[in-house]
Design brief:
- With 162 residues, the chain is α/β, with parallel strands linked by helices.
- It has one domain: Rossmann fold (3-Layer(aba) Sandwich), CATH 3.40.50.620.
- It contains six helices and five strands.
- Strands 1-2-3 form a three-stranded parallel beta sheet. Strands 4-5 form a two-stranded parallel ribbon.
- Strand 1 (3-8), helix 1 (15-27) and strand 2 form a beta-alpha-beta unit.
- It is globular, with a radius of gyration of 15 Å.
- The termini are far apart.
- The mean pLDDT is 96.
- Bound molecules: 4'-phosphopantetheine (PNS).
- The site of 4'-phosphopantetheine has 12 residues, from strand 1 and helix 4.
Length: 162
């Protein structure tokens, strides 16, 4: 069985992430979306909230499961005996950061965890969770960026009643 992990902050999940999840779930027999901590970011949603949102957003994809982990990605992958990590690449600006994470993980895992990149579909290439949050915080329209139930939760966090 071919299994993969899609790690990320998912704070919260966007249509860009959902595009990568759907396409990788068609490549692998089982895909685990794993919510991890990115120490450089302060999240809007708790890990539990992000897991719940992801579960709802992926409920129609039977081979996708959602989990969280508070340590290193390579430790989680080892624990689950998974050897491929999937990440989306939106633009050249993502490349250096992604290359560094991929090489770090390969090095730290003694070659046990490889990274596979999918290029984000063009219509989502501009999207990031941070931009979505910024637009929402100023009461802007995020309906093209996230599912409706997610948009509602984001506005709620900013105390905006739309
Ligand atoms: O969605 P993001 O914020 O770009 O995802 C980054 C993430 C969460 C995948 C990365 O920060 C991560 O893997 N964190 C877990 C800790 C870890 O394994 N760090 C070593 C690789 S830099």
């Amino acid at each position: 069985m071919k299994a993969a992990i899609y790690p990320g902050s998912f704070d919260p999940v966007t249509y860009g992430h959902l595009d990568i999840i759907k396409r990788s779930s068609e490549i692998f027999d089982e895909l685990t979306v794993c919510v991890l901590n990115n120490k450089t970011k302060s999240p809007l949603f708790s890990v539990e909230e992000r897991v719940k949102i992801l579960k709802e957003a992926t409920k129609d994809l039977p081979n996708v499961k959602v989990e969280s982990f508070s340590g290193l990605l390579i430790d989680y992958a080892r624990e689950k005996d998974i050897h491929v990590s999937v990440r989306g690449l939106r633009a050249v600006t993502d490349f250096e950061y992604e290359l560094q994470i991929a090489q770090t993980n390969r090095q730290l895992s003694d070659g046990d965890l490889d990274t596979m990149f999918l290029t984000t579909s063009l219509e989502y290439a501009f999207l990031s969770s941070s931009t979505v949050k910024e637009i929402a915080s100023f009461n802007g329209d995020i309906s093209q960026c996230v599912p409706e139930f997610v948009a509602k939760l984001i506005y709620e966090k900013y105390g905006i009643d739309r």
